[in-house]
Amino acid sequence: MPIPTISLVTMSPSRQNNLVSLQPMSRNCRNPLPVFCTDDNISQCVSYINQELSSLGLSSYMEQSSAGPAGLSAVPALNAAFELLQVHRHTMATLEELEREQLKKSSTLDHMQMSNSRLKDQLELSIREKSGLHETERQLQLKIKTLQSCLKTEKDEVQKLQSIVASRASQYSHDGKRKERELAKLKERLSQLLVDRRDKKLAIDVLNCLGRADGKRSHWKTTKVAARYGEEPSWQMYKSMLREYEASQQSLMLENAELKKVLQQMKKEMIHLLSPHNAPCRGASTDDSQERLDSDGEETTGNTSRELLDPSCDPAREQLTNSIRQQWRKVKSHMEKLDHQVQNHVESSKELIPRETHEDEMERLRREVQQCKEFIHTQQQLLQQQPHASFDDETAEFLSDCYTLEEKERLKEEWRLFEEQKRNFEKERKYFTEAAIRLCREKKAFEEDRASWLKSQFLNMTPFANRSRCSSADGYSALSISSEPESRKSSAKSLSSKSPNYSSFSTPKPAPSQSTTVPSSNKLDRTFRPNPDTR
């Protein structure tokens, strides 16, 4: 057995040389238990052991016995052996304790490694959940932006519809007033022609009868008489013509003044009827003021017609005045009803009229206005030509019958247009109720989707949640969010594919509701129907 290096350091050089001499001998020995001490090196071994014991901090009392070199004192050797045993036991106990500590630390290290791997997995899962929530939030933000843009476009279209309805109402009232004035003028002219034809007797009419200034009967003036009085016959004719022209001009000025008054009154009433603040909820005060305006306008129109008509045709004048008053009242009531219907339609309707339809309708109205202007111009020319033409009683009756039939046909056409507009308004109200039902259903689906998303988010808040549950919840929310825009796109395509076959006031028909939990269209129609007492 080789000698440890620590002994070589602590021993003296002479002893080291002695021990080095023993190493070849021990190396050459091939016994399983090498020989340390022999009879020849007892003293060297004792000194070596004492030196080792002193280096280990033990008492070195191993001495040779006095009996001779072959003997060794037993007490110090036993004490040294006991101390070595105690040191060995202490070392073994310390070694076991260190092994236990190492085992604990290794188990703690394994536990920390497992906890670290588990926390890494949880961190990756949280990152994936966070990315999924960010994607869902982004989709919801996009959806909110699209809904806001749709709401803005709907508001713009509603404002356009309100302006279109107001312009059309003003145009219709304008046309009604103009037609009414034309009718009054034509009836007045017809009554004048009838009265003139009935009162005219069979006689020779003297055109441009020359009268004297003193009121006496004028005589035929020849060249001799003119030469006697120093004046020419043409001067008398010119004077009479000037007087007639002045009288006609004065009457025309009075008539123009009266017509201007009537026109101002009609303008006031039109402004009162077409003003946006003229609501039917004003009550009896508005009705009384309108009745006063009606009576004033009727009195002015009646006075004008009385001045223009001959005093001998009182029944015809009264009949004409009453007919004009009745027609004016009908037009005013009709305009009030239309205004009320338009206000209700603007407040409740969400459907829109396309811009192309609006432009086509405006072009059609312009053409109608141009045709009406041409028709009025033609009528004025005919009325100017009528006094110079000679008609008999049969022709006058025939013309009166023609005017009456034409008026009846025009009234029938206007009534038909009114009924068609009424049907269109009813259809639009029905479409609005269906749109409200569809909006309720979409709102309910959105609330359900939102509740499911909040539920899945609440379930995913726990750190040790099941991954399959999280993935299924994320997939369900993403599927529901992605499916809702697709359903809206399909509904929009179905709406755009249906072309309206109604008039310019009609709107596209929305998809019918099939939800059993939403109220029916009849109930909503009864709810949104305006009260007839408030009109």
From TrEMBL:
The protein depicted here goes by the name Synovial sarcoma, X breakpoint 2 interacting protein a
Q: Where is the composition biased (Polar residues)?
A: 512-522
The similarity annotation says: Belongs to the ADIP family.
> Per the record, what is one GO cellular component?
adherens junction
Q: From the Swiss-Prot or TrEMBL record, state where the protein is found.
A: Cell junction, Adherens junction; Cytoplasm, Cytoskeleton, Microtubule organizing center, Centrosome, Centriolar satellite
Record Pfam families: ADIP (PF11559)
Task: List the keywords (alphabetical).
Answer: Cell adhesion, Cell junction, Coiled coil, Cytoplasm, Cytoskeleton
Which ranges are annotated Low complexity under compositional bias?
A: 492-506
InterPro entries to which the protein is assigned, alphabetical: Adhesion_Centrosome_assoc, Afadin/alpha-actinin-bd
Biased composition, class Basic and acidic residues, residue ranges: 523-535
Give the superkingdom in one word.
Eukaryota
Annotated region Disordered: the residues are 275-314, 481-535
GO biological process annotations for this chain's record?
A: cell adhesion; determination of left/right symmetry; intraciliary transport involved in cilium assembly
